């Protein structure tokens, strides 16, 4: 029994090049095309060592951690505002939440200054999705 036929009469099965009858089409195509008329430029191999200094690692890690904290702070702030708008919180709860969020924002400012980071440094660019943190 012969297998399904491709255009041009070449079958899927029964080829001499591979066990089980399948032809190695890539090898056939390469042989038919011959050597390319151009050659890709040679590039220098990458150095396998990673050049890292303590300050850049510390700053990068601080930036990542502070970005996550800032994202969570903004989400908590929005949630608190929604709950205030819905009337879910008492005056005392509103005061506590407000004081807590203000203290967290102040602490974030101090940490950013300590690590030499600007607020823009905490906003990751997500490509086509836009920035991680809103810019309002």
UniProtKB/TrEMBL annotation:
Residues 1-25 are annotated as: Disordered. Residues 1-14 have a biased composition (Gly residues). Its main location: other. It is found in: Gas vesicle. Residues 15-25 have a biased composition (Basic and acidic residues). GO terms for cellular component: gas vesicle. The keyword Transmembrane does not apply. One of its GO terms (biological process) is gas vesicle organization. It comes from the Bacteria. Keywords: Gas vesicle. Belongs to the gas vesicle GvpK family. This is Gas vesicle protein K. It comes from Micromonospora coxensis.
């Amino acid at each position: 029994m012969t297998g399904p036929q491709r255009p041009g009469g070449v079958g899927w099965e029964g080829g001499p090049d591979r066990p089980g009858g399948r032809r190695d089409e890539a090898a056939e195509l390469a042989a038919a095309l011959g050597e390319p008329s151009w050659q890709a430029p040679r590039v220098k191999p990458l150095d396998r060592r990673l050049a890292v200094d303590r300050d850049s690692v510390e700053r990068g890690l601080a930036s990542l951690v502070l970005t996550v904290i800032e994202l969570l702070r903004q989400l908590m702030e929005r949630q608190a505002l929604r709950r205030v708008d819905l009337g879910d919180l008492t005056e005392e709860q509103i005061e506590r939440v407000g004081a807590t969020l203000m203290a967290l924002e102040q602490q974030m400012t101090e940490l950013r200054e300590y690590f030499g980071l600007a607020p823009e440094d905490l906003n990751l660019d997500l490509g086509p999705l836009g920035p991680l943190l809103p810019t309002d």
